[in-house]
């Protein structure tokens, strides 16, 4: 169920956002251009995206290199580079699903097979973990290595080793989780055993540190062209964001944000924090070994002003495992009394409701990538309007670049193999049989005010079409999510009808949502929650 759910979320939302861009562009560049062995600096400068767009801090290439290696053998079987983007993300999603299934095995070993079933149901019905498990964020790469049982000293050593490797390479905040896990287990031993406990777990952390540095420093020194100075991207990011405080430039949240907002959203099912976790905490010691370090990690991390839910997602499977133990305990008492039976009925209903809510969130989230949808739509429209070999120039505005446009999407035409993905020059022109696309991503305000600048383009993807100077025609409009509204019996959701072509991914999601709506309205007497849409990007064609 977990792998299937992750892949379904990927299928219905195949595009990416700007926060995923470093890794997805790096994967493209490795697959398209290969890894140079000679003239490294010149090769990378001419072909790799991160040289032109380095970002505020360097990021590691370790995850991109891993997924590129896993994906390359399958390229020959694909029909387009967009399919290759889906394949790359599917590889990451399956890695995380296998990590979760491995953790489920631990849950079954500790609390029994029934607990393992509850874990799968609770985890698969949580939207955020399933939706983001295939997204190329550093947190998601680290997520796969953070799913180990730490309920005993024996398992703690392996858990600390993997967490240290993940922290060194991908996300430095895992150092806090390592500390809370180690301290909790430390306090479970009498003082006389503390030296032996420290001696048993310290090598795991040190070994993880050495392995992590041995992996990330050579790889990233190479790709970031830092030689002879060593490059440790995650340490650079830690200094920039935490020590120097630049993370706060992205916004701040109150200290209680994680507990009051992020955790309830991540867990989704309200019975998890209100019933299942308290039941497990009170009655089960292994559950406390998961709950206390996890919440301790959140409490300490809450001291930092800049907060995002993905910074704490590593603890969700642990809390879900403890909730599964609580659900197993409650399920075992279902025949004891009428009250127990009603509680269990509510528990089952909460699982069904969570799956329904997760489906609704998927339908909404799939509309948050207007840039990718607009470029795919333009490629369909323009390919039929231009002869093979024609060079078509397109301007992409800031919203388009941040909401789904990647090099994979830019080259969404048939390819025989990874080598044919090669682009030449900074315009990223796709040189293949059929239309050759040339893309411009200029965002300099002064240049955009020059009429001559716009004469270069055949098409433009614009959030604000009035900024395109000259005569332009709107070929199509891509809509995106703009909130929800309550629909009365008999009232249709006109905002989302007929806005996309039938074959688009958004249209497929809406069709699935319509099926859910037909069933749901029968249950609610005709009342329903509709999705309100608004124009996000116009596809413009320049008129001669």
UniProtKB/TrEMBL annotation:
Pathway this chain belongs to: Protein modification; protein glycosylation
Membrane topology: Multi-pass membrane protein
Catalytic activity entry: an alpha-D-Man-(1->2)-alpha-D-Man-(1->2)-alpha-D-Man-(1->3)-[alpha-D-Man-(1->2)-alpha-D-Man-(1->3)-alpha-D-Man-(1->6)]-beta-D-Man-(1->4)-beta-D-GlcNAc-(1->4)-alpha-D-GlcNAc-diphospho-di-trans,poly-cis-dolichol + a di-trans,poly-cis-dolichyl beta-D-mannosyl phosphate = an alpha-D-Man-(1->2)-alpha-D-Man-(1->2)-alpha-D-Man-(1->3)-[alpha-D-Man-(1->2)-alpha-D-Man-(1->3)-[alpha-D-Man-(1->6)]-alpha-D-Man-(1->6)]-beta-D-Man-(1->4)-beta-D-GlcNAc-(1->4)-alpha-D-GlcNAc-diphospho-di-trans,poly-cis-dolichol + a di-trans,poly-cis-dolichyl phosphate + H(+)
Keyword list, A-Z: Endoplasmic reticulum, Glycosyltransferase, Membrane, Transferase, Transmembrane, Transmembrane helix
Compartments it resides in: Endoplasmic reticulum membrane
GO molecular function, one term: dol-P-Man:Man(7)GlcNAc(2)-PP-Dol alpha-1,6-mannosyltransferase activity
Keyword Methyltransferase listed: no
E.C. numbers: 2.4.1.-
Membrane spanning stretches: 158-185, 197-219, 262-281, 287-304, 311-331, 343-364
Primary subcellular site in the record, as a coarse category: endoplasmic reticulum
Source taxon at top rank: Eukaryota
GO cellular component: endoplasmic reticulum membrane
One BP term from GO: protein N-linked glycosylation
Top-level EC class: transferase
Family: Belongs to the glycosyltransferase 22 family.
Function as written in the Swiss-Prot or TrEMBL entry: Mannosyltransferase that operates in the biosynthetic pathway of dolichol-linked oligosaccharides, the glycan precursors employed in protein asparagine (N)-glycosylation. The assembly of dolichol-linked oligosaccharides begins on the cytosolic side of the endoplasmic reticulum membrane and finishes in its lumen. The sequential addition of sugars to dolichol pyrophosphate produces dolichol-linked oligosaccharides containing fourteen sugars, including two GlcNAcs, nine mannoses and three glucoses.
Protein's UniProt name: Mannosyltransferase
Organism name: Saccharata proteae CBS 121410
